[in-house]
Amino acid sequence: MSSHTNLHCKVEGDIPIDLKIPNHSSILVISKSQRYLTHVFHKYPAKFIPEYPRWAIKKFAGDKTNLILDPFCGSGTSNVEAKLAGYNSCGIDADPLARLLTKTKTTNLNEKKLLDIKESILDNIHKIKKEKKIPENYKPFELWFRPDVVQELLGLRNIINEISDKKIHDFLLICFSSTIRKVSNADPQLVLPKISKFMRIKEENGRTIDVTKTFSKVLETNTKAILDFSKITKSSTSVKILGTDSRKIKAEDETFSLAVTSPPYLNAHDYVRAHKLELFWLELIKEKEDLGKLDRKYIGTEKFYVKEYSDIPQVGIKQLDKKIKLIQKVDQKRAFIVAKFFLDMQTHLEEIHRTLQEKGHYVMFVGNNIVRGNVIPTHQYLSDLAKKSGLKTELHFSSPLIKRMEVQAGRKDSGGFIADDQVLVFRK
C-alpha cells in the first residue's frame, strides 16, 4: 500500500490520543523532538521517532501501576518515554550495547556526584597517559584507527574504568562509545563502518583528530541531558532489562498492560556490524570472532551455516510460503532467512500473548521489504501470525518516512527501500 495515496492527515509533533485514525489510512508524522533529553545519547541505526511510543503509551498503557515492555528495545526510545510518562518498563535486546544504552539513558544520576566526577575528568583529561604498547587483540582494528588514536582511547578508557560508582561508570562508557566512531577512520555519516572516499580525501588533506576534545564535547552534552532527565523523572520509576531473547520472555503470565516496539527489519540492518567498533572498545566482545557468535542471536540474522538452510521450513501462511518458494529458486539462503524470521516472530508473538494482560495491547512499528525482487508485506504476515497466536488486529495504519531508509546498502537486488512505517495495534 502506498501511504501517499491514502494520506488521512499530517501531524507535527505529538499524535493526539483522541485523533480518529481510520483503519488502513496513512498519517504523516513530522517529528519535533528526536534529540531532547537522553534521546540525544548515541547514534543507533533505524531508531524510531519518540512520538510513536509516546502516543502508544498515552493511549494504551492505562493505570500508572501497569508495566510496559519493549521486546526489541534498541536505543531505549520506548523505555525513555515510559519513564517520562511515569511508568515502570522492561526492555529486551540481543545487542549488549543496546542493553547498556537503554539502562544508562533511563537511570537517574546524583547531580553533585556526577558534576564532581565530570569536572575531575575534564581537569585531568589532557594528562591522559597514552598506552605505549598496543595489545595484540587490537591489531585487527588497525585499519579503523590511527596508532596515536588507539593509544589515547586506551588511556581514556583506563580513566573511566577507575570510576567506582557503577551508574556513573556506565554513563561515561556510553559517552566513550559515542566518541569511538567520531575519532575512527570510518565515515561517521554511514550506518556500517566504512572508510569512504570522502574520509580518504580528508585523511590526505591532513585530518585533525582530537580524542579528548571530542569526548569532552560528548560528555558536556550528555551530562546536561541526563541531569535534565533526572530532574523531571522519579528515581523510583524503574527500567529493567529482561535479558536477550524476545522469544523467551522472562516474565510471568499477564505481566504487561502494553508492549510497544520497532522490531528488527527483515533483510535490513546488521546491528552487530554497525556497532562492531563500539562493542570492541567497550569490551562487550573480546575477539573479532565474537561478532559472528553475537550476530546469530538476533531475530532476522543472516549468519547461518550451509547445512542449516539446506531445507526451507514452511511458515504456514499460504501467500508467504509461495513467496519463499519464489525466492528459493534464485537464493536458497535468502529464502531460509525469510522463513526463519517469520517463524521466530511467531514464537515471539506467542510469548507476547502469554505475558500481556487481558485486553492488553501490542503496538508494533514495522517496515515492509523487498527480497530478491519479491515484495514482502511484513505487516500483513505479522498480522496473520498474531491471529494464530491469539491476538486481534485492532488497528493498522501507515506513516510515510520523511527520508526513505535503504535496507542493506550494497546488496543490489537482494534488498530494497523502506518508505513507510506500518503501524499495527494488536489486542489480547
Helix vs. strand class: alpha/beta
Weakly predicted, low-confidence segments: 404-416
Strand content: 15-25%
Strand arrangement in the largest pleated sheet: 5-4-3-6-7-11-10
Helix content: 25-40%
Please summarize the sheet with the most strands. Answer: 7 strands, mixed
CATH topology of the largest domain: Rossmann fold
CATH level 1 class label of the largest domain: Alpha Beta
Cα radius of gyration in angstroms: 22 Å
Number of domains: 2
Topology pattern, helix = H, strand = E: EEHEHEHHHHHHEEHHHHHEEEHEE
Q: Mean pLDDT, rounded to whole units?
A: 89
Question: How many β-strands, per DSSP?
Answer: 11
Number of helices: 14
CATH architecture group name of the largest domain: 3-Layer(aba) Sandwich
Account of the 3D structure:
With 428 residues, the protein is of the alpha/beta class. It has two domains: 3-108 and 234-427, Vaccinia Virus protein VP39 (Rossmann fold, 3-Layer(aba) Sandwich), CATH 3.40.50.150; 111-232, no CATH class. The protein has 14 helices and eleven strands. It has helices at residues 51-60, 77-84, 96-105, 111-124, 147-161, 166-180, 197-204, 211-232, 271-274, 276-281, 290-295, 318-328, 332-355, 378-388; strands spanning 7-12, 26-30, 67-70, 88-91, 239-241, 256-261, 356-366, 369-371, 374-376, 392-407, 416-427. The strands form three sheets. Strands 5-4-3-6-7-11-10 form a seven-stranded mixed sheet. Strand 10 and strand 11 form a beta hairpin. The longest helix has 24 residues, at 332-355. 43% of the residues are buried.
